[in-house]
Specification:
The chain has 380 residues and is α+β, with helices and mostly antiparallel strands. Helix content is 19%, strand content 33%. The protein has helices at residues 23-28, 48-57, 77-82, 132-142, 166-169, 217-227, 234-243, 278-287, 374-378, and strands spanning 3-6, 32-36, 39-44, 60-63, 68-73, 96-103, 109-119, 122-127, 148-151, 156-162, 185-190, 193-198, 207-213, 230-231, 292-298, 309-312, 315-326, 331-338, 348-353, 356-363. The relative contact order is 0.15.
């Protein structure tokens, strides 16, 4: 039978509130702490605009240790994951990673995640914090004989170092960072600490995510701050990811949404062989989406909010899934789930806003292209 182990905390036990290995550092820095998916996390340290400016022009650092980190080991690990996720992992060699989805048999999205392949028969999976227990149970229940699943979420801290200056700031001793491709995975030593690094992130900028032993996370955080990285909270991360057109699970998609409706059909490889949800997704693609995610650029002072109704010539055509004011772009932006007939670029729409209506136009995603090269972006 398959085996699985969990790290020091039981992943199925509710902890209220949970804290990352960097909690004391956030409090000492004066961060505003908020609850996020049962975790006490920094929302911001200074203004959201200042933190976002750091990410867009220099280097920002985020504590994302609340996300789930699992490993699948053994000669059958790759085949197991291939049958569980929607994307094609045969395209992922050692030292590479891939964005993909877990789907239900009916095609609904269980979670979006990144699968890493640091070694031939060792795979790592990073999942959303809000889905950590659900995804662990899903993978455990689908794991066949010969695959070892390990929950390393509490053993490892996870730091996201993001921005165009990241290559100069990260003083990794034994890795040429410029040689690591987008969605590449390697191991290196920083300030005497051995860690896995991946050229991934959630901001639209170049950057690396560092998988650090939990007991050394605070030391590495301090080293990076001393080198010039600006600490950033959840608020700046959310604005950056929306500008980059990146989806947020539970907001832009959930188990009632299929990949085509979320604009993530490119992650579904129906020809790769059997996987969970394949039949339903083949049918969904053939029928076409009932609704589809689109980008909206807002006029004047309209600030779109989650759940706001969207109308076209007075008729209800959808709702905002994610919305905010972008300081960087100087306007309100949103992603909205729309009737497919209303998602043509240039379509003029109205959004409920503070008791009235604000004007919006359908635009192409992403709203902003940062220091990640477009050609490299397509390889993810």
């Amino acid at each position: 039978m398959s085996t699985w182990t969990q790290s020091s905390r039981n992943a199925g036990t509710a902890m209220a509130p949970r804290r990352t290995p960097l909690h004391d550092q956030h409090v000492a820095a004066g961060a505003r702490m908020v609850d996020f998916a049962g975790w006490e996390m920094p929302q911001q340290y200074r203004s959201v605009k200042e933190e976002q400016d750091a990410v867009r022009t220099a280097v920002g650092i985020f504590d994302v240790s609340h996300m789930g980190r699992f490993e699948a080991r053994g000669s059958g690990a790759g085949e197991f994951l291939q049958r569980t996720v929607t994307n094609d992992l045969t395209r992922v060699g050692p030292g590479q990673a891939q964005y993909t989805l877990l789907c239900r048999p009916d095609g609904g999205i269980v979670d979006d995640l990144v699968v890493y392949r640091p070694e031939l028969d060792r795979w790592a999976v990073v999942v959303n914090a809000s889905n950590r227990e659900k995804d662990w149970a899903w993978l455990r229940d689908h794991a066949p004989e010969g695959v070892d699943l390990v929950d390393r979420s509490d053993e490892l801290g996870l730091l996201a170092v993001q921005g165009p200056g990241v290559g100069r700031l990260l003083a990794v001793e034994d890795v040429q960072l410029d040689a690591v491709p987008y969605f590449g995975v390697t191991e290196g030593t920083l300030a005497g600490v051995r860690m896995m690094l991946s050229r991934t992130g959630y901001t639209g900028e170049d950057g690396f995510e560092l998988f650090v032993p939990a007991e050394r996370a605070a030391a590495i955080w301090s080293v990076l701050l001393e080198a010039g990285a600006v600490p950033c909270g959840l608020a700046a991360r959310d604005v950056c990811r929306l500008e980059a057109g990146l989806r947020l699970y539970g907001t832009d998609m959930d188990e009632r949404t299929n990949p085509y409706e979320a604009g993530l059909g490119w992650t579904v490889k129906l020809d790769k062989g059997d996987f969970v949800g394949r039949d339903a997704l083949r049918q969904a693609r053939a029928e076409g989406p009932r609704r589809i995610l689109a980008g909206l650029a807002c006029a004047e002072r309209t600030i779109p909010r989650h759940g706001a109704r969207v109308r076209r010539e007075g008729a209800d055509v959808g709702e905002v899934t994610s919305g905010t004011h972008s300081f960087w772009l100087g306007r309100g932006i949103a992603m909205a789930s729309l009737d497919p007939a209303s998602r043509t670029i240039g379509t003029q729409l109205a959004i409920d806003s503070r008791g009235g209506e604000g004007r919006a136009e359908v635009v192409a995603l992403p709203f902003y292209r940062g220091s990640v090269r477009p050609a490299a972006r397509a390889q993810a």
